[in-house]
Amino acid sequence: MGRTLAEKVWDDHVVRRAEGEPDLLFIDLHLLHEVTSPQAFDGLRQNGRRVRRRDLTIATEDHNTPTLDIDKPIADPVSRAQLETLRANCAEFGVRLHPLGDVEQGVVHVVGPQLGLTQPGTTVVCGDSHTSTHGAFGALAFGIGTSQVEHVLATQTLPMARPKTMAITVEGELPEGVSAKDLILAVIARIGTGGGQGYILEYRGPAIERLSMEARMTVCNMSIEAGARAGMIAPDETTFAYLKDRPHAPRGADWEAAVAYWRTLRTDADAVFDAEVVIDAAALAPFVTWGTNPGQGAPLSACVPDPASYEDASQRLAAEKALNYMGLSAGQPLRGIRVDTVFVGSCTNGRIEDLRAAAAVLAGHRVADGVRMLVVPGSVRVALQAVEEGLDQVFTTAGAEWRHAGCSMCLGMNPDQLAPGERSASTSNRNFEGRQGKGGRTHLVSPQVAAATAVLGHLASPADLTEAAAPATAGV
Amino acid sequence: MEAFTTHTGRAVPLRHGNVDTDQIIPAHWLKKVTRDGFEDGLFEAWRRDPDFVLNHPERQGATVLIAGPDFGTGSSREHAVWALQNYGFKTVISSRFADIFRGNSLKNGLLTVVLAQETIDALWALTEADPTTPVTVDLHTRQVHAPGITAAFDLDENARWRLLNGLDDISITLHNEHQITAYEATRPTHKPRTLTI
């Protein structure tokens, strides 16, 4: 019987397989950041262990880093201490680090792919659940806890039980104005935050094949929001073109050998998935969340659902709690919910195509009075590219704040936070209670919806912007 | 890792589903570089409400958390497990756990027990009616006991063996280091490297 993409990559990394034990998997790439690594390095020190494969390990600083005044000492002493701990650990153990101020610094899941380190058929881990991002290349990539970070540092392997496989087949073509973010939010709303639990997802079908690499990363990034540790997309010409000539992409004969191998990384025609979900791309529309988990979402044109409409008691209770926290009422139109803050950035939507999409909507408009818009590039390289294209000017001219690279308001570990009761439209990945700041309320949106929302001051799509502008233009 | 064999304690019935790791331990606590001192961050936002179950005087000293489905969703932060342990919890019972949280818990000796939602409903009713109700989680027999309730739970034999003996995964893996070395010798040259060494 044929094998799925996930099974092929898994099988190629089994170091040890024994009855009654989890498989021992070799890890090709280990990404580190300041938050989930200090206790792991402590463990190595306490046991007199070294980093087994420094040449497969790389670190950057992202979660705590400020996005203003980066040339000054970090104001928060606890954040500063955590970054200094990473620097000391990397120096002591010989790990390559891209610290704040370095041209390769940025959100860890933006840095790996742009350096060409994330490659098809590799195993990639990081102490961060959004490691699923790298699955866009046909890598098997998943988030791990700190004990596992220590395990990988010491052994370059992980004992893992093999998950089941689920196909998410997206038929047809995404309509104009519908992005990868809308697609993945719709997938999560369909299968639920626990729907992918125990599975590796494989996104496939014509709508997926047409996505750019960056759009594929947006999709795979949020696999964890559906409960799946990993999401994958089979590598193809789009993948190879993205990788070619990147700093760590193979060269010469190695490139030819790599591409030949990468071409084998497709699910066989006779392979069987443990579960399958089919989505019709043509039926999708701009999608936003109304609740406090990423599965609580609906098309922008819909209304806030009535908790009483849920048959499942726990879902009903969750919806009631969510509406209470979010300060929303059942039946209220989603379009029209007013926001205080708009955040464009994160490992989900902080890449150059995301900034281009937001800037294209924003160009010629002003951010609404009373709305704060933060644009935080995913990495220094993304920021430099944006400046070269003049996107920073589009943002600042419209009244948005153009910031330095980092995780920023996605999780508010740095000073970029919502105040209690404030409401955001955010291109990030989690709308959990207090995620962006104590008492803050988050609506997850695409970069296009974020930009339109910033202009109108309420949840809106770019189409609303044209309609809103039309009467004014006619009057001139 | 701390071994887990059997544990009996009073329970905290937490009637919330989808308890994400941002609720268990908010991000600003993640700046600490130790594995301890997270107890005050556990459910920090919810604990500001005096009516939150953890604040009830009769729940002080409870060691068994009985939660709704999809406990531990979201971030990979192992701090969530440390916070529960630092606070005093020895075991968490739910009908479904997020994968990464589950893995983290079992690597730290916090036993996460999966039971059917009907059993959890019964445990909630029992421990809400009488907060002194003892709940026992026995890893030897893979059973949960409370007055009038006996429920079996699954845990794969390998994870159970490691928990019962408090074994450290790294030592187990390094026992087979020769297999890692053998695998490394077969890796193709086109695989990425972060350094040239």
UniProtKB/TrEMBL annotation, chain A:
SUPFAM superfamilies: Aconitase iron-sulfur domain. It comes from Streptomyces pyxinae. The keyword Zinc does not apply. Its EC number is 4.2.1.33. One of its GO terms (molecular function) is 3-isopropylmalate dehydratase activity. Heterodimer of LeuC and LeuD. This is 3-isopropylmalate dehydratase large subunit. PANTHER family: 3-ISOPROPYLMALATE DEHYDRATASE, HOMOACONITASE, MITOCHONDRIAL-RELATED. Keywords: 4Fe-4S, Amino-acid biosynthesis, Branched-chain amino acid biosynthesis, Iron, Iron-sulfur, Leucine biosynthesis, Lyase, Metal-binding. Residues 7-457 form the Aconitase/3-isopropylmalate dehydratase large subunit alpha/beta/alpha domain. Residues 418-442 are annotated as: Disordered. Catalyzes the isomerization between 2-isopropylmalate and 3-isopropylmalate, via the formation of 2-isopropylmaleate. [4Fe-4S] cluster binds at C347, C407, C410. Belongs to the aconitase/IPM isomerase family. LeuC type 1 subfamily. It catalyses: (2R,3S)-3-isopropylmalate = (2S)-2-isopropylmalate. It is an enzyme of class 4 (lyase). Binds 1 [4Fe-4S] cluster per subunit. PROSITE patterns: ACONITASE_1, ACONITASE_2. Pfam families: Aconitase (PF00330). Pathway: Amino-acid biosynthesis; L-leucine biosynthesis; L-leucine from 3-methyl-2-oxobutanoate: step 2/4. The keyword Iron applies. Its cofactor is [4Fe-4S] cluster.
From TrEMBL, chain B:
HAMAP family: LeuD_type1. It comes from Streptomyces pyxinae. InterPro entries: 3-IsopropMal_deHydase_ssu, Aconitase/3IPM_dehydase_swvl, AconitaseA/IPMdHydase_ssu_swvl, IPMI_Swivel, LeuD. It catalyses: (2R,3S)-3-isopropylmalate = (2S)-2-isopropylmalate. It is an enzyme of class 4 (lyase). Belongs to the LeuD family. LeuD type 1 subfamily. GO terms for molecular function: 3-isopropylmalate dehydratase activity. Residues 1-117 form the Aconitase A/isopropylmalate dehydratase small subunit swivel domain. Coiled coil: none annotated. Heterodimer of LeuC and LeuD. This is 3-isopropylmalate dehydratase small subunit. CDD domains: IPMI_Swivel. Gene3D superfamilies: Aconitase, domain 4. The keyword Transmembrane helix does not apply. Keywords: Amino-acid biosynthesis, Branched-chain amino acid biosynthesis, Leucine biosynthesis, Lyase. Pfam families: Aconitase_C. Pathway: Amino-acid biosynthesis; L-leucine biosynthesis; L-leucine from 3-methyl-2-oxobutanoate: step 2/4. Catalyzes the isomerization between 2-isopropylmalate and 3-isopropylmalate, via the formation of 2-isopropylmaleate. Its EC number is 4.2.1.33.
